[in-house]
Predict the structure.
Amino acid sequence: MSAELVVSNLLNPPVLFFLLGILAVLVKSDLELPAPIPKVLSLYLLLALGFKGGVTLRESDGGLVLPALGAALLMALAVPLYAFPILRRRLSRPDAAAVAATYGSVSAVTFVTATAFLQRLGEPQGGYMTAALALMESPAIVVGMLLARLGQRNDDIQGQLTVLLHEALFNSSVVLLVGSLAIGYIAGKANGDVLTPFTESLFPGLLSLFLLDMGLVVGRRLGDLKRMGAFPIAFAFGLPPVNAALGMGIARLIGLPVGDALLFVVLCASASYIAVPAAMSQALPQANPALYVTMALALTFPFNVVLGIPLYMSAISALWP
């Protein structure tokens, strides 16, 4: 079952375009997307994801919303707390805190890819998982900063926390995602159908274009792996399956259906390479972005997109009745 899902995922056009982007860099092609386009594509994916999630949320089982959001918050807080002491054995305190925050936060693009994977399988999904995505992005950033400051005297920690909280809660990704979710919920299916050609029909093609650009970005980061050493590489590949297994247990415990369970597991297993670097560059300038960005973007992200999603789905299919 897992082999079939992996092969099916590898033949999925968005994943193939992602691999094409990596290949283009390896063969030293001049292929690139002009600077404004990736930003526009990112905004489109967040808008479409949020709006569709809001419409679905209005019609979904309300009894699962609070348990799912509570579980999402729990994992967002727990992952950096147990990852930090492991990382601290080999990394400096700032680097360990930044990496811990990276893996406690989430990747919206991995989540979007998982939703497209479920659509190909015809597996339904609840809109509340989009709310879980928005909820999980910020807590780990705050936890990471607190772990970095632990035991250090800093008279302005309250002021730094205020700035960090504003950045974490009101950055453009969170505002657009939550705003689109709310608009989709308010509009509902009857009024939201007018956007169906925009949010549904265009989605696979624009996701393919965005993942092509992500492949180019990942390809350019591969050179940084030589300077990282074995421990960060092992951590970047090892922690996602552990987090996925924990997420799977929680999803089974609270009774999430198969599609939502996969999305929750993917959130637990992913790592942020956008929101956390933006926040950490301000809160922890002494941490090395070449380390935590490369781990999340060049290792964990490709692993999840190419292999992780179908493997997690295979495990869920075997464990769920």
